[in-house]
């Protein structure tokens, strides 16, 4: 029984490995096709006059920046929505704290753990930028392709 169990586990692992290998082969094939398309586009670009090459590069950069701006606008909207939600929660919690402190009138003032009007400071996380562009790691191949073409 133990030998059969181990045999079944080995077959399952072999099947999973073969499926994973097939998926990787398909991914490699797709990448090779994409690379060939990029090489053809690059060769066609090289055959163009320098002025047309510059214009083509500028058009691609404008397209990339437009897409990046749209992504940033979407992110900004999400952050603003989250900020409003957090401000509402903060007001609710501040009200609860004030109500709690008001109910603690039996405790002498010098022994109270909190001040009556509590101030909350929200600190922003400072970013240290080291370049002109910020991008996601998964967008790196696309960025490199656009820079080349």
Automatic annotation (TrEMBL):
Residues 3-103 form a coiled coil. Keywords: Coiled coil. This is MYO5B protein. The lineage of its organism: Eukaryota, Metazoa, Chordata, Craniata, Vertebrata.
